[in-house]
Each structure stands twice: as structure tokens, then as C-alpha cells.
């Protein structure tokens, strides 16, 4: 059996406990061997629940464990960079949850650390490992819809709980950081280039002060992308890719279910009634398992990190520009 990367996890965050860790445990190249929590009892309970051999009562203890090869960092956003730096300094590769930082400048601080320590650092956009996204990019590159010129994305859920970490400004809460980052990543991935300028519009919750409704227009050299994201709307998600000869729609683009097939709709544009739509169905798969294995292979075999640190920085640059545009009320250039 091929060697598996031994993963350690910082914190008992819900996304890890409920989605990422069980999936990684099923990986061909990944195994979760330790978890750390500032509450040892909580960490031990999660370790028992998920059959993780070791639990630590501090992040420092886990980082000092010589039997850990890589770290999964799902901590609150403001702790992504500080703990990723500590992990890299301890000689651990790091897969960090999105957004990788609170700003582009903060994300850039990881470059020096990565290059000095020689570890791999990547951003956990699990969608980039899912077959439906790989197929979409292949269809676009192959000219199935002609020349891609426009992308429209929508991503929303409803959560107005003031105690929820996603609704706290100091921890990087709000729609743009939490889910708008996916819409940005999608557009950059599909176009294969960076936007030159953006225009953003933000509505903030008067009590929480986080952005509860954010929309943006991204101006790329070859076309436009628009998106709306919200933490206080009916749950919904969809992405459409419009070309000169057709259209692609991803039915469940971001939270692709691990227990049922997913679908792409490819429309040749013959009419507006959908008679020209062909459906491609993808077998049941767990994108978190695929993500863990892809990063593990990058460590074991030297294959590319699915979402590199450079890509993460580029995504943060767009997030920064959208915030700045919404504040100024004007178009904002995206610095290269």
C-alpha cells in the first residue's frame, strides 16, 4: 500500500469535524492522526468520534509532534496566517481553509516563510478537486461553448446568529470572506486570468456590522464576471458560464453533496426553452476526500498544489479590491 500523509488538525471547527476530517480519513493518500483543541476534553471527544488516534490540549503540542507530516488549518480567519506560519516553522506542510488571510498583504507574508522552510502551503478550495469543475474547465478550454465571455454566480445562506463566528467582523466574518471568495475563485479559474478592476456593492447588517449582501462586477481582459453572495438570504447556489456558442451551468457548484451524483447542464443555445441542453452526470464523490488526496500527492510525488499560495494571494487581492470599491463607490484596480 502506498504511503499516506499523516495529518494533524488545528481545532475542532465544524467544517473539519462534520465534513473535511471524515472525508480525509477515507483518502487513499491521507490519514488524520492527531487533532488539537485548546479544550483537551473537547478534542478527545472529537478524536474518539472520528477514530483519530491522538488528541492534544494545545496547538503547540500538535505542531511539535514529529509523526505529523501536514497540518489542516480550519481556525477562524484571523488565525489562518499566524498558525500557518507556526506550522511551517515546525516543518509541517499546510492546507489552510479559505480565505487564507484577512488581506493580500497578510497572505503575502507566507511566501517568505514557505520559501525558507521548504514546506508546501495551499488554500482549501475543495471545488478545484471536484470532477464537475475539472470537466467545466476542460469544456471551456475545448471550445464547447465558443469563447467564454461572461460568468454569473450566486451563493447564499441564512444565518443571523450574533454568536456565530461567521457574523463577527473581528474574526473575518461576513459574506465576501466566507462565500464570495468561491465566486471569485470560480471566475479566475474559468477565465484562466486575473481581473484588472472590480466594482463592489455591500450592505452591512446594522447590528453585526458584517457584510450580509455583497455584489461585484469583475472586469477581465476577455470578459466579465458578476456575483452576489449573502449570509441572510434563502439558501441557493449556482454558476453559469456564457460563451459565444453556448452555456454551461453547474447545478450545485460549491457544496457538492457527497451522497448523490452532481450535474452539469451544457446548452448549445438553440432556443430559450432548453431543448438544446445536454446533461452530464458525475458519480457520487466527496470533494474533501479528493482535496486531501490531491494535497497529499503534492507532498509525496511533487505534483502541483491544487490551489497554490500564489493563487491564494491573487484571490485575496480581488477581495481587497471589492471591499475598497464598496467603500469608495468607484471602480478599484486589482494590483498584480
Q: Uncertain regions: pLDDT < 50 for 5+ in a row? A: none
What shape does the CA trace take? globular
Record the strand order, biggest sheet: 14-13-12-11-7-10-9-8-15
Helix content: 25-40%
As a percent range, the share of strand residues is: 25-35%
List descriptors.
336 residues, alpha/beta, nine-stranded mixed β-sheet, six-stranded parallel β-sheet, 9 helices, 29% strand, globular
Describe, in plain words, how this protein is organized in 3D:
The protein has 336 residues and is an alpha/beta fold. The chain is built from 9 helices and 15 strands. It has helices at 14-25, 40-50, 59-63, 80-89, 104-117, 131-141, 175-191, 287-301, 309-328; strands at residues 5-10, 30-36, 54-56, 70-73, 93-97, 121-124, 148-158, 197-204, 211-220, 223-230, 232-243, 247-250, 262-267, 277-282, 332-333. Helix 4 (80-89) packs parallel to helix 5 (104-117), helix 5 (104-117) packs antiparallel against helix 9 (309-328) and helix 7 crosses helix 9. The longest helix is centred in the C-terminal third of the chain and has 20 residues, at 309-328. The radius of gyration is 20 Å and the shape is globular. The model has no long low-confidence stretch (mean pLDDT 96).
Summarize the structure.
This protein has 336 residues and is an alpha/beta fold. The chain has helices at 14-25, 40-50, 59-63, 80-89, 104-117, 131-141, 175-191, 287-301, 309-328; strands at residues 5-10, 30-36, 54-56, 70-73, 93-97, 121-124, 148-158, 197-204, 211-220, 223-230, 232-243, 247-250, 262-267, 277-282, 332-333. The chain has 9 helices and 15 strands.
Amino acid at each position: 500500500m502506498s504511503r499516506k500523509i499523516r495529518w494533524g488538525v488545528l481545532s475542532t471547527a465544524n467544517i473539519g469535524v462534520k465534513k473535511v476530517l471524515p472525508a480525509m480519513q477515507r483518502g487513499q493518500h491521507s490519514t488524520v492522526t492527531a487533532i488539537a483543541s485548546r479544550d483537551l476534553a473537547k478534542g478527545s471527544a472529537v478524536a474518539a468520534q472520528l477514530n483519530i488516534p491522538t488528541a492534544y490540549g494545545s496547538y503547540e503540542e500538535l505542531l511539535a509532534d514529529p509523526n505529523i507530516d501536514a497540518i489542516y488549518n480550519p481556525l477562524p480567519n484571523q488565525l489562518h496566517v499566524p498558525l500557518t506560519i507556526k506550522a511551517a516553522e515546525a516543518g509541517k506542510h499546510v492546507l489552510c481553509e479559505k480565505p487564507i488571510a484577512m488581506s493580500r498583504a497578510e497572505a503575502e507574508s507566507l511566501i517568505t516563510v514557505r520559501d525558507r522552510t521548504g514546506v508546501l502551503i495551499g488554500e482549501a478550495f475543495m471545488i478545484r478537486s471536484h470532477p464537475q469543475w475539472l470537466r467545466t474547465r476542460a469544456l471551456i478550454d475545448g471550445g464547447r461553448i465558443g469563447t467564454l465571455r461572461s460568468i454569473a454566480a450566486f451563493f447564499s445562506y441564512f444565518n443571523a446568529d450574533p454568536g456565530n463566528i461567521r457574523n463577527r467582523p473581528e474574526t473575518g466574518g461576513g459574506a465576501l470572506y466566507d462565500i464570495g471568495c468561491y465566486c471569485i475563485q470560480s471566475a479566475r479559474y474559468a477565465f484562466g486570468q486575473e481581473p484588472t478592476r472590480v466594482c463592489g456593492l455591500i450592505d452591512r447588517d446594522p447590528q453585526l456590522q458584517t457584510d450580509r449582501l455583497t455584489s461585484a462586477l469583475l472586469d477581465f481582459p476577455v470578459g466579465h464576471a458578476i456575483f452576489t453572495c449573502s449570509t441572510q438570504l434563502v439558501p441557493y447556489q449556482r454558476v453559469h458560464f456564457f460563451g459565444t456558442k453556448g452555456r454551461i451551468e453547474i447545478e450545485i457548484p460549491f457544496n457538492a453533496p457527497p451522497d448523490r451524483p452532481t450535474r452539469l447542464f451544457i446548452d448549445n443555445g438553440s432556443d430559450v426553452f432548453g431543448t438544446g441542453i445536454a446533461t452530464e452526470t458525475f458519480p457520487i464523490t466527496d470533494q474533501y476526500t479528493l482535496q486531501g488526496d490531491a494535497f497529499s500527492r503534492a507532498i509525496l510525488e511533487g505534483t502541483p498544489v491544487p490551489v497554490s499560495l500564489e493563487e491564494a494571494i491573487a484571490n485575496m487581492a480581488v477581495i481587497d479590491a471589492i471591499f475598497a470599491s464598496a467603500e469608495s463607490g468607484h471602480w478599484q484596480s486589482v494590483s498584480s
